[in-house]
Structure formats: C-alpha cells, structure tokens
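Summary of Year 1 activities. Much of the first year was spent building the evaluation harness for sequence design. The harness presents a backbone, in tokenized form, and records the residue chosen at every position. We chose the following record to illustrate the format because it has been used consistently in internal testing since the harness was completed.
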C-alpha cells in the first residue's frame, strides 16, 4: 500500500510538472502575441490582446482590440484597485468611438447632440455628451465657441463656479482645446470638455462627474473615449499619434477672434 501511494504521488508530480511546462509555454506564446499592431488604410492600429502599463493617470489596463477599437472585457488597475467592464463601439452619424457599458446611452437625441449617456451613479448631473456644430453655417470658430462658453459662466446661477482652466494641445494633424470646470451644486462636480474641428465641423466631447465618486480610472476611461474617436472617416488618433507635441494656456481677449 505504501509503495502504491508513492507511485501515485510520483505520477502526480510528473503530470503537474508537465502542466506547469505547458502553462509556461502558453504564457510565452501569449506574451509573443500581445501588443500587436496592424496597418489599415495607412493607419497603425492596435489588434489582439494588449497590456498597457501606467499611462498619464498611472492606470494600467488590459484587454482586446479589433482594428484599433477596444472590444469586450477590459480590466483597469491603479494603486491596488481594479475595475472591469465591457467596451462597446458606437458607430452612427459619421462618428465611430468606444463607449464603456457603464455609460447608459439616451435614445432620440436631437442636434446638435450626436450622442449622450448617463453615468451609472444615480446622479442626474453626471453624463457624457458629444455635440457637433457646422462652423460655416455659424460663421464661427473654435476660439469663438470656448470664448462664449467662458462668458456664459458670468450669468450662470444654477451652479457655483469653483475653478476653470482652458488649455490647447497640439497633436499630430489636429489641435484640441481642453476645458476643465469645477462647480458645486448638491455635490462638487468637474466637467471636462475636449473641443476640436474636423472638416469645418466643431465637436465638443464633454464628461461631467462627481469629484468625490471619481478616480484616476474614470479620467483614463474618458481619455480612451477621446482617443478612439473617428469623425467623418478621419481617424484622429492612431497608435503613433496619441501623445501631444505641445500644450499652452488659452488667454481670452475682450472680444472673440475668428
């Protein structure tokens, strides 16, 4: 009986060792196949399984891409915390972009709204929204737009303005304005807007969140929505153009400049 037991244990060790070797081979193969790039119509795009370590917000993330768009389950991690969710693809009205499943789309939106979604946090004041304006019809510019937005706070009585910041970022092939406004109503909120122009259309992508309920992961997710955007068949950010070249503060003069 003792001998048989010894043989069984030895057999288990052999099989466990084989399984360990197999797992290591699979891990090596997985590492070799992750973080792959493909070239589609001249764009360099992510494809397959990817792992990103510590971006701007020190957030690491992993999941799968299909032709540059996140798909399926992704895991985001920062300082011991992790969040997992599903990335979906919105593809309507000349816009294609990633949307996480914890943002709940609102149907039947009307222009200038192209897309709107509520943040799943039981707060009607938090949302993601994408607006589009025809600058030729408006006889306006991106600078006019943010100038008027800045002026609007002089007459806003619904929320108390705590701070505001206007910056301009230069990426390869596109300039993007970022507006950050911190306000107080029932809670403290931060609204971040990315404003840019493609083919004479101005786009305003805004995310408003409750500061006390948000984290670096939420900021990273919003940035990923921006970086996924394609407008009027123009891919704003492929893999090689997601880092800005320069940034500067936006200074307002007494009157808007076209």
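For this record, the design step produced the sequence shown next.
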């Amino acid at each position: 009986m003792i001998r048989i037991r010894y043989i069984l244990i030895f057999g288990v060790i052999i099989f466990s060792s084989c399984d360990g070797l197999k797992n290591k081979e699979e891990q090596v193969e997985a590492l070799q196949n992750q973080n792959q790039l493909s070239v589609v119509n001249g764009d360099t795009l992510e494809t397959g399984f990817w792992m990103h370590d510590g971006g701007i917000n020190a957030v690491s993330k992993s999941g799968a891409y299909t032709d540059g768009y996140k798909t399926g389950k992704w895991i985001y991690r920062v300082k011991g915390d992790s969040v997992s969710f599903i990335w979906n693809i919105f593809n309507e009205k000349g816009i294609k972009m990633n949307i996480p499943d914890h943002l709940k789309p609102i149907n039947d939106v009307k222009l200038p709204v192209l897309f709107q979604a509520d943040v799943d946090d039981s707060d009607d004041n938090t949302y993601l929204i994408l607006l589009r304006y025809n600058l030729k019809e408006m006889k306006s510019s991106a600078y006019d737009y943010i100038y008027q937005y800045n002026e609007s706070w002089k007459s806003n009585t619904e929320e108390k303005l705590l701070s505001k910041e206007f910056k301009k970022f230069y990426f390869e092939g596109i300039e993007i304005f970022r507006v950050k406004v911190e306000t107080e109503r029932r809670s403290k909120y931060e609204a971040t807007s990315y404003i840019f122009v493609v083919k004479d259309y101005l786009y305003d992508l805004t995310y408003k969140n409750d500061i006390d309920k948000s984290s670096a992961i939420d900021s990273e997710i919003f940035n990923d929505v921006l970086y996924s955007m394609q407008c009027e068949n123009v891919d704003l950010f492929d893999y090689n153009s997601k880092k800005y070249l320069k940034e500067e503060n936006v200074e307002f003069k007494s009157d808007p400049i076209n």
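The mean pLDDT is 84. Quantitative recovery figures across the full test set are reported in Table 2.
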